[in-house]
Amino acid sequence: MREELASLLQMNTWTLVERTPDMKIVKSKWVFRIKRGPTGEIDKFKARVVAVGSSQVQGIDYFETFSPVVKLTSLRLLLALANEEGMSMRQLDVKTAYLHGQLEEVVYMVPPPGSENKGMVCKLNKSLYGLKQSGRTWYRTLDAALLALGYKRLESDRCVYLLKKQGTKVILSVYVDDMLMFATNDQLLKNAIDDLGKYVDLKDLGEPRYILGIQVNHDKKEQKITENRR
């Protein structure tokens, strides 16, 4: 919990301001969950501060909420294509993804339990988890970064991006904060990860093993990919 609070403060997630009678204030809470590995084993325990989005009012605290995610069919096609063409591939995780998005609306939140400040509330600067617009804000932030890097968004799937350079290519699929990146060779893949890492905080998870409930087994020697749905 201390680590989560420290991360939120480091990213300037909110500014403490004095509470006034006219403020519309959303609640906050802690959410605890277990993150599991590819075989279902416990990887780590996570604690996260979230805003209680159910207390938001449309037209005041938020306006639009829609945000796309990669289609499962697209993901499977990309894995098959990468295997067929012998592409290098990596699974990436964006640390505190939503906090990269700058909040456009004015939203006040009760300080998280355990960090209360009498007479003060949090004026949110970033799109904290739990807000109804957070997914959309994060998608727009990432989309802008990828377009700035020269990627093209596919018309058939708004969460698949393509970057072509001198006969080589990089393909990226996005499901909120989970990404798969494919590239013509290892060096190109490394460069693409480094470039995107200048915009968002990335964690390289290595070759895809477990994504969206699918266990992925990649046999480079046999040039074969198999999937097991958990």
Structure overview:
The protein is α+β, with helices and mostly antiparallel strands and 230 residues long. The chain has one domain (2-229). It is built from four helices and 15 strands. The strands form four sheets. The protein has a six-stranded antiparallel β-sheet with strand order 8-9-10-11-5-12, sandwiched between helices. It has a four-stranded mixed β-sheet with strand order 1-7-6-2, with no helix packed on it. Strands 13-14-15 form a three-stranded antiparallel β-sheet, covered by helices on one side. The relative contact order is 0.19.
Strands side by side in the biggest sheet: 8-9-10-11-5-12
Determine the number of helices (DSSP H or I, runs of at least 4 residues). Answer: 4
- Mean of pLDDT: 88
End-to-end span in angstroms? 30 Å
Structure class:
alpha+beta
Q: Give the assembly state of these chains.
A: single chain
- Strand segment tally: 15
Main sheet, how many strands, which sense, barrel? 6 strands, antiparallel
- Approximate helicity band: 10-25%
Indicate the low-confidence ranges by residue numbers. none
Radius of gyration: 20 Å
- How would you sum up the global shape? elongated
Quote the beta fraction.
Answer: 25-35%
Q: H/E element string?
A: HEEEEHEEEHEEEEHEEEE
Total count of domains: 1
Pfam family, one: RVT_2
Protein name: Gag-Pol polyprotein
Organism: Ornithodoros erraticus
InterPro entries: DNA/RNA_pol_sf, RVT_2
